[in-house]
Write a structure and sequence with these properties.
Layout (H helix, E strand, L loop, with lengths): L18 E2 L2 E2 L16 E2 L3 E4 L4 E4 L19 E3 L5 E3 L7 H7 L1
Antiparallel strand pairs: 1-2, 3-4, 4-5, 6-7
């Protein structure tokens, strides 16, 4: 039986020990991490603006399947603002009122 699988590789800073901005995370004291954060621009499904302060999800990215909606979607239901699929209740507009809007 080989003991190799029980022996850890030699630890080397930047190789198998992570560094922060090129500084080893080993030793005493604090590391100062600086940076400007996320730059403004299109990041795929999110657009960043305001020097990284505002993150906007692009239109059509979040589909119905990603919502925690209850009920069953169908041709006769709609998704209410409270994430519930519901049927249109009776007592709405009459046919004449609808035709007057068109």
């Amino acid at each position: 039986m080989s003991l190799r699988k029980f022996i850890q590789d030699k630890l080397l800073s930047g190789v198998n020990i992570k560094t922060i901005n090129g500084s080893s995370i080993l030793g005493s004291g604090n590391l100062t991490v600086t940076g400007s954060g996320v730059s403004d621009g299109d990041k795929g499904d999110i657009t960043v603006s305001g020097s990284g302060a505002t993150w906007t999800i692009d239109n059509s990215v979040v589909g119905v399947t990603k919502l925690s909606a209850t009920g069953t979607p169908s041709a006769s239901t709609y998704l209410r603002g409270d994430n519930t699929w519901a049927t249109v209740s009776a007592g709405g507009l009459t046919q004449m009122q609808i035709e007057g809007l068109i």
